[in-house]
Amino acid sequence: MSGENVIEARGLTKEYGQATAVDHVSFTVGRGEIFGLLGPNGAGKTTTILMLLGLTDISSGEVSVLGFDPAREPLSVKRRVGYLPDTVGFYDQLTAGDNLRYTARLIGFNKAEREKRIADALDRVGLADVAEHRVSTFSRGMRQRLGLAEILMKGAQIAILDEPTSGLDPHATAELLAIIRGFKSEGVSVLLSSHLLERVQSVCDRVALFSGGRIALMGSVAELGREVLGGGYVVDIEADGAGLAERLALIPGVSGVEKTGIGKLRLHADRDVRPEAAAEVVAMHGRLKYLGVQEPSLDAIYTRYFEDKPREDRAMNAGARHAA
Amino acid sequence: MRREGSAFQGLGVVVLKELSDHLTSTRMRVLEWLVVLVALAALYGAIQQIKDTTAEDPFLFLRLFTTSRDPLPSFVSFISFLVPLMAIGLGFDAVNSEYNRRTLSRILAQPIYRDALLFGKFLAGLITLAISLITLWLLVVGLGLLLIGIPPGAEEIGRSFLFLLATIIYAGVWLALALLFSVVFRSAATAALVTLGIWLLLTFIWPVLAGAFAQVIAPIDPRYTALGLPTPATSEWEQILSRLSPTTLFAEVVVALLDPTTRSLGPIYLSQMQGAVLGAPLPLAESVLIAWPQTVGMIATAILLFVIGYVTFQRQEVRA
C-alpha cells in the first residue's frame, strides 16, 4: 500500500457476458477522505462497490483495500470495512439492538465489548432510546441510521455507503450527512455512491462521475467546476447605492456585471471578489444585504458535461443498466 | 486460489440465530401442532387395533408405529407424509427471504463466507426438525407405554430409535431440496410451489410412472404372465426406478427396521430362501444391514442436493 491511500483501484473491470458493467475504472481514496461515486442508476457504481468488498468477482484489473486483495483475502477486507447497501434491510422481527448483536457476533466481538460498542453506536446515531424496539416499526431514515450504527459498531476504517440518502426526506438526509461528516472527523474514510448530486456535493472531498461504467470526471467539485464550466466565479450581491454596478465593474478581475433584480447584481470574475465588492459597497455608504459566491454545482457540471458528449455514451449507459 | 481463513467462521452464530428464528416462528408452532394432533390420531387408531387383536407378538411395541385402523393411516404413513411438508415449510424461504428483506448483502459484508450462511441455515433447519421429531418420538413411546401397559424390550427401543434417525435423515433430504430451490428462485412463493410440486411428483406420481417406464424398458414377458407371475426383469427395473424417489427409500428403511421379519426389500429369489425360517424375526444388526443401502442413498441425496444449492449460491450475485 503506497502512501495514505486506503483504496486503490486500477483498471477495474466487470463483465456480465457481453455487457460491460464497469469498464477499466481507476481511482484512489485517501485516509480520512470522503469520496463520492456519482452517476445515474446503472452506471456501475454498485458493481464497483461489490468488487471492492469481494462480494462479486473481478473480471480484470487490480484493487487493494487497506493493502488487502478483496478477491483473495475477503475476510480481512470485510473485517475492516463497513458497508451500507442500497436500501439496507434488517430482520424486522428483531429489535434494533438484536440486529446489531447478530452482526457483532458474526464479527466475533465478545459479550462485554459487544454490548458496549452497540450502546455507543446507537447513541451516536440517535437511536439509543429505540434500541429495544422492533425494526419493523422503524422509518426509512431510522433504518439507514441503524445501518450507519452497524458500521460504527464494527469500528470500520472505511465506510462504503451505497445510495445512503436516496428516498430520505430533507431532515433525515441532513442527519445522515452529519453522521457521515462525523466519520471523517474520526479519520474513517468514506466512499459513497449517489445519483442525487446536489445532496452529497456538500460532504464529498472528491468525486468521480460515472457514466456507462467508466469514470468520466474525477476531482474535487471546484476542480470539476473549473474544468467543465470553464472556470470563473459568480458572486451575487444585494445592496443599494447609485452607480454601484459601475463601480463594481472596475474591480480588477471582474469580467461582467449583470442586474438580476432590484438592487441585485451578479458579478462574473476570475477569482473570489467578495472582499473587494464588500469594500466598494461600504465605501459608498451603501447597505449590504447579501453577498455570496456560487459554488460550482455538480448538477450543472454533470448536465454540461453530458450535453457535450455524443449520443453513443448514452447508448452504452442503457446497455449497462441491467446491472443496477 | 486458496481462500483465507475457515469456511465455517461464523457458522455457530448463524445456526443459533436461525434456530431461534425457527423456534419462535408461528410457522413452526403450526407445524408442530399439526404433527402432534395427527400423531395422536394415528396412535389412537393403532392402540384400538392392538387392543382388539391381543395376539401373541414379540414386537407388540413396534406395532404402535405401523398398525393402522380405518379410516386412519398408521403413524409411519403419517410421518412419511408430514415430515417432507415440515421440512419444506422450514426451508423454502431460507435464502430468498434474505434477498427479499435485503439483509443478504449486509450480512455477507461481515467477515464470514457464504458457506457458513448456507450450511448454518441447513443445520438450523435440521436441528429444528430433529427437536420436533425427537419430541414426537418420546410422546409416542410414552403414550404407548401408558396405554398398552407393556414395557418395550431393548431391541424394540433400538429399532424405534433407528427409525427416528432414519426419519431425521429423510427430513434432511427434503430440507436440502427446499434449500436448493430457495437459492434458485428469488420468489419464496415460486420456491414453495416448485418444491411441493416435486414432492407430489416423487411421492404420488413417480411410483405409478416407475411401473410404466419399467414396462417400456423391459417389456412384460407373456410366459410369466401366463403363470400369473410378474416378469423379473420388469420388476427389477420398476424397483430401481422407484428407488429414485426418497419416499420409496424411506418406506423401505422403515419396513426393514420396524418389521423384524423383513428379509429382503426386493423380489426374493429361491436361493435367498434356502434355510430361512419363514416369519421368524431377524436380529437387529441384520435388519440394519438390509436398510443400509437405502439409508446411504438418502444421505447421498441430501448431500447432492445441498452441494447443488451450494454451488448455485456461490455463483449468485448478492445484489437484490
Q: What can you tell me about this protein's structure?
A:
The complex is a heterodimer of chains A (about 325) and B (about 325). With about 325 residues, chain A is of the alpha/beta class. Chain A has 12 helices and 13 strands. Chain A has helices at about 45-50, 75-80, 95-105, 110-125, 140-155, 170-185, 195-200, 220-230, 245-250, 275-285, 300-310, 310-320, and strands at about 5-15, 20-30, 35-40, 60-65, 80-85, 160, 190-195, 205-210, 215-220, 235-240, 255-260, 265-270, 290-295. In chain A, the strands form 3 sheets. Chain A has a 6-stranded mixed beta sheet with strand order 5-6-7-3-8-9, sandwiched between helices. Chain A has a 4-stranded antiparallel beta sheet with strand order 11-12-10-13. A 3-stranded antiparallel beta sheet of chain A has the order 2-1-4, covered by helices on one side. In chain A, helix 3 (about 95-105) crosses helix 4 (about 110-125). Chain A is globular and about 70 Å long. The two termini of chain A are about 30 Å apart. Residues about 310-324 of chain A have low confidence and may be disordered. Chain B has about 325 residues and is mainly alpha-helical. Chain B has one domain. In chain B, about 75% of the residues lie in helices and about 0% in strands. Chain B has helices at about 10-25, 25-55, 60-65, 75-90, 95-100, 105-110, 115-150, 155-185, 190-215, 220-225, 230-240, 245-260, 270-275, 285-315. In chain B, helix 4 runs parallel beside helix 8 and helix 8 runs parallel beside helix 14. The two termini of chain B are about 25 Å apart. The mean pLDDT of chain B is about 85. Classes of the chains: A alpha/beta (about 325), B mainly alpha (about 325). The interface of A and B includes residues 53 and 87 of A.
